[in-house]
Amino acid sequence: MPIYEYICADCGHEFEYLLRGGESPACPSCGHSNLNKQLSVPAAPALRAATPCCPAKESGSCAMSGECGGNRCGLSQWDL
Q1: CB neighbourhood size of 3 (10 A)
Q2: Number of Cβ atoms within 10 Å of the Cβ of 35
Q3: 27: number of Cβ within 10 Å
Q4: Where would I find the H helices in 1-80?
Q5: Which of 26, 25, 8, 6 minimizes the C-alpha distance to 16?
Q6: What does each C-alpha distance from 30 to 15, 33, 45 come to in angstroms?
Q7: Can you tell me whether residue 58 is helix, strand or coil?
Q8: Nearest-CA neighbor of 58 among 41, 79, 44, 34?
């Protein structure tokens, strides 16, 4: 059961709709079914907590003798 995003062509209301089977959605604001389906971006899981701040530091190959460079080693751009 996918969730689709729509914009009502009659009143301009934007909404999401969980489409079940052969249903036809209607605008929750005005009740009309003259809708335009929108392209939506799928959600991706966040990896922030599981990813180290510096890949070189975690692998033991950091050129800063074990201290995180703080923009000095050039790898801080990988902060996630």
Answers
A1: 9
A2: 20
A3: 21
A4: 55-59
A5: 6
A6: 12, 9, 35
A7: helix
A8: 79
